[in-house]
Amino acid sequence: MKKILLALLVAIPMFAFAQAPKFGVVNTQTIAEAMPELKAAQEQVQASTQKYEEELKKLQEKIEKDFADFQALDANTPESIKERRMQDIQQQEQKMQQFHSTAMQDLQRQQAALMAPIQEKIKSAIQAVGKENNLTFIFESNVPLYVGTDVTDVTSMVRTKLGI
């Protein structure tokens, strides 16, 4: 009985040590930057941004032209015409600001929609690496203030899983 009890006392700490949680860290930013999908998404957003900038430039040029025309009005021009033209210019400026706001929101939505599948792909690869290596947790590597020697950096494994 003493031998069995002694064997259990020796085996329990070894079992507990064998079952100790294993941690990993990963740098998802470097992984995302290496993915060709990210570059394609960035190019799409940049193309949309350029189109919006061109449209805003056209609106700005129209406002500037109308304002120059307003300033060139003859001193004999009735006040009601001057007021109407100034109101038109102010309305154009408001429309341009509203367009700018809408454009920014659209670009943010577009970027989020393009990034979602990339983020999901990275997440799936991280989960697969975690399961394959029996890791308890995988943390983002740029967050911890200290990482001990028993933590595994799985960034290269995730990159390999993604084929990059």
In short:
By secondary structure, the chain is mainly alpha-helical. It has five helices and three strands; from the N terminus they run H-E-H-H-H-E-E-H.
Tell me how many strands there are.
3
Rounded to an integer in angstroms, the radius of gyration calculated over CA atoms is 31 Å
Give the SSE string.
HEHHHEEH
Q: How many angstroms does the end-to-end distance come to?
A: 58 Å
Give average pLDDT, whole number: 88
Characterize the overall form.
rod-shaped
Structure class? mainly alpha
**Strands across the major sheet, in which order?**
2-1-3
Question: What's the tally of helices?
Answer: 5
Q: What is the oligomeric state here?
A: single chain
What labels would you give this structure?
single chain; 3-stranded parallel β-sheet; mainly alpha; 5 helices; 3 strands; 164 residues; rod-shaped
Descriptive report:
The protein has 164 residues and is mainly α. Helices cover 74% and strands 7% of the residues. It has a 3-stranded parallel sheet with strand order 2-1-3, covered by helices on one side. Helix 3 (36-71) runs antiparallel to helix 4 (79-132). The mean pLDDT is 88.
Topology:
Blueprint: H1 2-18, E1 23-26, H2 28-34, H3 36-71, H4 79-132, E2 137-140, E3 151-153, H5 155-162
Parallel strand pairs: 1-2, 1-3
